[in-house]
Amino acid sequence: MKIATFNINNINNRLDILLVWLAVAKPDVVCLQELKAAHKMFPQMAIEKAGYGAIWLGQPTWNGVAILARGGEPVMTRNELPGDPSDAQSRYIEAAVNGVIVACLYGPNGNPQPGPKFTYKLAWHERFNGHAAELFKTGLPVVLAGDYNIVPEPRDIYASRSYDDNALVQPESRAAFRRLLDQGWVDAIRKVHPKDTVYTFWDYRRNRWQRDAGLRLDHILLSKKMARRLVDAGVDRDVRGLEGASDHAPVWAEIKD
């Protein structure tokens, strides 16, 4: 099973790029973030024509998440992150796919910080960590995949002082990610590439793609059962270089059946 996560940054504007990548990479499960489309505007027919069933949670202009399954239909198990009924932002969706629980998340950016957006970011990740702990306790094969909007360590960002005040790299953000790993989840990219520099996001500004001035924001975390079956993991960097591409590249992990 090949599981991937891809912040598509507007699914309708970049549908052609998504479809080409699906045809070439052939992931079995895909978690998408930043659909930036109302629920009824999700391109379901095009996705189905490409061979994928889908569930999604749309939202106009911002946010939006989806889970795709090649040759099958994801079975939705949750369409919101528990813990705050007043939270109307479309950031979390969960499904069962071929015996695996797949959680797709789009963590809050949190900028500017300090401020209410950063407070929301930290509270959201606290809720997410609580739910992740419950999933981990089940002992089931579980994947937590998405754009966490957290740079876990200094080595996960290019040498720069321009992000010093950014919510993505703050100690509180990194501590939230560390607490998640401390539950027992395995970071697929770091498991396969423990010492390599790996980026998944390159801002459009200041020629950051051309300079390889990247950040690692997109992560696939595996429960113990899944981690034992991990074969490989990587980033499809070439997708970021396509004309009109998202500022993120797809991240994937290959799991032995």
TrEMBL record:
Domain of life: Bacteria
Organism of derivation: Neomesorhizobium albiziae
Protein name: Exodeoxyribonuclease-3
GO biological-process terms attached to the record: DNA repair
Gene3D superfamilies: Endonuclease/exonuclease/phosphatase
The keyword Metal-binding is assigned to this record: yes
Catalytic machinery residues: Y106, D147, H248
Family: Belongs to the DNA repair enzymes AP/ExoA family.
Co-factor remark: Probably binds two magnesium or manganese ions per subunit.
Site-annotated residues for Transition state stabilizer: N149
Keyword Endoplasmic reticulum assigned: no
Domain Endonuclease/exonuclease/phosphatase residue range list: 4-248
